[in-house]
């Protein structure tokens, strides 16, 4: 648990790593299309690496998580880290 004195903030950061070997190319393309679209209301950015697709945002309100539920992302292919 974090305790902060002086001010209260509802901002949170989050990141993810998708291992490409575990995900179909069409799913990777759908994710990149979503992240590049106006639907990406949380401002996720990503880096497309050889083995992974890595993402980061400073405000995670869950819109990307809801989008992922519409894909065929296999369990364990994405690792999230958030505060």
Detailed description of the structure:
This protein is of the alpha+beta class. It has one domain: 2-Layer Sandwich (Alpha-Beta Plaits). 20% of the residues lie in helices and 25% in strands. It is built from 2 helices and 4 strands, in the order E-H-E-E-H-E. It has helices spanning 25-35, 63-68; strands at 14-19, 45-48, 52-57, 78-82. It has a 4-stranded antiparallel β-sheet, covered by helices on one side. A hairpin with a 3-residue loop joins strand 2 and strand 3. The protein is globular.
Properties at a glance:
83 residues; alpha+beta; Alpha-Beta Plaits; four-stranded antiparallel sheet; 4 strands; 20% helix; globular; disordered N terminus
Number of domains: 1
Global structural class = alpha+beta
CATH fold-level name: Alpha-Beta Plaits
Distance between the amino and carboxyl termini: 10 Å
Largest sheet: 4 strands, antiparallel
CATH class: Alpha Beta
Q: Can you count the helices?
A: 2
Low-confidence stretches: 1-9
Determine Rg (CA atoms, Å). 14 Å
Average predicted local confidence, pLDDT: 81
H/E series:
EHEEHE
How would you sum up the global shape?
globular
């Amino acid at each position: 648990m974090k305790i902060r004195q002086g001010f209260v903030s509802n901002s949170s950061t989050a990141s993810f790593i998708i291992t490409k070997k575990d995900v179909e190319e069409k799913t990777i393309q759908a994710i990149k299309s979503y992240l590049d679209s106006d639907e990406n209301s949380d401002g996720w950015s990503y880096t497309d690496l050889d083995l992974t697709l890595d993402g980061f945002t400073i405000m995670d309100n869950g819109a990307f998580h809801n989008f992922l539920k519409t894909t065929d992302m296999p369990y364990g292919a994405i690792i999230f880290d958030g505060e």
